[in-house]
Amino acid sequence: MFSHQAFAKELGGLPFDLIGDFERKMVTDYEVRRDDVPGYSGMARRTIYVIDGSGTITWTWVGSREQPLPDYDAVIEEARKASQA
Questions:
Q1: Which of 39, 44, 46, 50 falls 20 to 30 Å from 23 in CA-CA distance?
Q2: What is the three-class DSSP state of 85?
Q3: Among residues 67, 28, 29, 32, which one has the least CA distance to residue 47?
């Protein structure tokens, strides 16, 4: 996705891939599907998963009204930890 490429470029590059879920399969499988707001049915709640080299989710952040954006420093730190595991 172009937005993912732009985001990674803005951060100076990322040592991991960002993915998109065009068919909404992951949204359902990972239980982050929004069905609470008209017009957003099937869309994902803003969510970040950090996955290590063995495919294990090591850290998760799910957006909420109280915290609509993640602590970006925490995301990068958790990603660094996962890449060293």
A1: 50
A2: coil
A3: 32
Residue 82 CB: number of other CB atoms within 10 A?
A: 19
Look at residue 11 and tell me whether its pLDDT is greater than 80: yes
- Give the pTM: 0.68
The rounded distance, in Å, linking the Cα atoms of 59 and 50 is: 5
Q: Which pLDDT tens digit goes with each residue over 68-79?
A: 999 999 999 999
What is the domain partition of the chain in residue ranges? 19-84
Radius of gyration of the chain (CA): 14
For residue 24, CA distances in Å to 31, 36, 54, 55 come to 11, 16, 24, 20
